[in-house]
Write a structure and sequence with these properties.
single chain; about 600 residues; alpha/beta; eight-stranded mixed β-sheet; about 15% strand; disordered N terminus
Length: about 600
């Protein structure tokens, strides 16, 4: 049955909430991891040694003879940044700082950054004290400027010296050529050659003078400090804010990984698709995730409406019994220890009863919460009494307050350590099926209750009931395997919400046993006075008008042998049961079979 509450996935796959569901379930891991990460960041801040940083900004100017004539000349600051962090600059800075620390260690404390689209270098220096940080930053900046100026001046001097030497040589050559011109006759070939050489040397001398002139006027200004290092007023590290944020981020990341790992290892069923994905069992219904009461809910409640839709589906999905006049038998089995099957069975039975059909609800669990759910007090008339042949099954049924069409057979003093007689249970179910339109049976998981597996092959349908957050997929798989061994008609599963403990429950969520619960009668039947007080008249089952039944005005008719109880003998196979309240000799031959008419008043 499609459920409106199974809305965590669509045709394209799981939506975001399906992925974040495990985060909601493991929020405490994330919170704890974030707190621990923040505490770790705070501890790191406390144990870290305080360091101070000071920064000097440098404006770097281009050097060379053509720098003044080209205002668009740019300096490659990436290269200059590497120069600042060179050992040559570090050694000069060490001299300016008058420090005994090796130059390579000083370099580890210096950093250089280049702001984008600028001709500025920012030289930062980190030290243990504000004064050392200020002195180190200024020393590295000044050492860089000094080195750059010295390098430029040396290059300029070398070029000027070279040009002056070339001019001297050319001047000497001109003097020699002038002598040759004076000695050569006019209009001679030698004179013409000498005059040609003089012209070449004159042009060469002019070129050298043109190259020398800008060098003599060239400026060797490498740049200047535009923002000198200041004395730091607060430490740059540890950065407490950064440490706390980093610790929290690392803690959250670790928490997410841990929560995801735990969620993958957790086999508890939390949503409907867990059942279909892990177990392969069809999901009939996923009830709303919350309920505040462990009781038969009113018809207007959301859970009651959902179970009403499940009832409608079951009326069409579960085939009609092969035997005419026999009501449908539906087994609801717990997937794990708890009250889920009882809660679903009681409210599903109420949904059937609200349609006007006769419904019987029986449980084979000694610790069943049906008493607390339905409000039916345990008396002498119980399943244990029926199994001991103290009272007929129809007599032991108790009405549910407010639902006259629903009768409940409470467990009584069933012994959890004794296997229930399956043959006797089948006789009881056959008798109830002959008198009621629907018979719902609550059992514990078949891995614990042997009768659950045995009854599964005799009913019309079996429904596994899982409780969100408690039932594990392995438990459902084991239970399903037990039913598959006997070819039980398991039609699907119902996911119940996380249920509260029964009101006045005892340990482990078991319903409290009334202290004044009457003991089973040793005789074959209840007294007339007790019967008049605890009278429960079972109404006849409604017959379709087209059935052709000749039932008379009341419409009651005795069930056929095929739909009624099997013949029972006092000591037949599985026909007797000894509960905790029995003493020796209570299982006597006087407890025989019984059969009641459909319209008989049992009171």
């Amino acid at each position: 049955m499609p459920s409106p509450h199974l809305a965590e996935s669509d045709s394209d796959g799981p939506v975001l909430m399906a992925y974040l569901g495990w985060l909601r379930r493991r929020w405490w891991i994330l919170l704890l991891a974030a707190v621990l990460g923040t505490a770790g960041g705070l501890a790191v801040s406390q144990f870290q040694h305080a360091r101070y940083t000071s920064t000097t900004s440098l404006l770097v100017r281009p050097l060379g003879a053509g720098a003044d004539s080209n205002p668009n000349a740019k300096v490659n600051l990436d290269t200059e940044a590497q120069v600042v962090r060179s050992l040559v600059v570090a050694d000069r800075a060490r001299t300016l700082m008058k420090s005994t620390t090796p130059a390579d260690q000083l370099l580890q404390s210096a950093t250089v950054t280049v702001p984008p689209n600028s001709q500025v270098l920012q030289v930062a220096y980190e030290a243990d004290s504000p004064a050392q940080a200020q002195a180190g930053s200024h020393a590295f900046a000044q050492a860089y400027l000094d080195l750059r100026k010295a390098t430029a001046q040396k290059s300029l001097d070398n070029e000027t010296t070279s040009l002056k030497q070339q001019i001297t040589d050319v001047t000497k050559q001109l003097g020699t050529v002038a002598g040759r011109i004076a000695a050569a006759p006019a209009n001679s070939v030698e004179r013409e050659r000498a005059e040609a050489d003089r012209s070449v040397l004159t042009n060469q001398l002019a070129s050298l003078n043109n190259r020398l002139s800008p060098l003599l006027s060239a400026d060797t200004d490498p740049g200047e400090i535009i923002s000198d290092a200041r004395l730091p007023t607060s430490p740059s590290s540890p950065n407490r804010t950064l440490n706390l944020a980093s610790g929290m981020g690392a803690g959250l990341l670790l928490g997410i990984v841990l929560a995801l790992a735990l969620d993958r290892l957790d086999t508890r069923v939390r949503r409907g698709r867990d059942i279909s994905d892990r177990v392969g069992l069809p999901l009939l219904l996923e009830l709303p995730p919350r309920t505040s009461a462990l009781a038969v809910l009113p018809a207007t409640h959301k859970i009651s409406r959902e179970l009403g839709r499940l009832r409608n589906v079951l009326l069409s999905a579960v085939p009609e019994p092969a035997q005419a006049g026999r009501g449908r038998q539906l087994l609801l089995c717990d997937g794990s220890a708890g009250t889920a099957a009882g809660f679903v069975a009681a409210n599903l039975a109420a949904a059937y009863a609200r349609t006007g059909q006769q419904v019987a609800l029986i449980t084979t669990k000694p610790d069943s919460a049906l008493t607390a759910i339905t409000g039916v007090a345990e008396g002498r008339h119980s399943l244990a009494a029926v199994l001991r042949r103290d009272v007929p099954a129809l007599k032991a049924l108790a009405p549910v307050p407010g639902l006259g069409q629903l009768r409940v057979l409470v467990p009584g003093d069933l012994d959890a350590d004794v296997e229930l007689p399956v043959a006797a249970l089948l006789e009881i179910l056959a008798e109830l099926a002959a008198r009621f339109d629907h018979v719902l049976i609550e059992t514990a998981q078949p891995t614990l209750a042997v009768e659950a597996q045995a009854l599964g092959r005799h009913v019309d349908a079996v429904i596994m009931v899982a409780e969100a957050g408690r039932t594990r997929s392995g438990e459902l798989t084991a239970a399903l395997r037990q039913f598959e061994q006997v070819d039980a008609p398991v039609i699907g599963a119902v996911l119940a919400p996380r249920l509260p403990a029964p009101a006045g429950g005892g340990p482990a969520g078991k319903p409290a046993i009334p202290a004044n619960r009457p003991k089973p009668r040793p005789g074959p039947g209840p007294s007339a006075g007790a019967m008049s007080v605890e009278s429960t008249m079972v109404l006849p089952r409604m017959k379709p008008s087209a059935s052709g039944a000749s039932g008379g005005a009341s419409g009651s008719a005795k069930p056929t042998n095929a739909g009624g109880p099997l013949p029972v003998t006092g000591n037949g196979h599985g026909s007797t049961y000894r509960s905790r309240g029995d003493g020796p000799g209570t299982d006597g031959p006087g407890r025989g079979s019984y059969a009641l008419d459909s319209g008989e008043d049992l009171g």
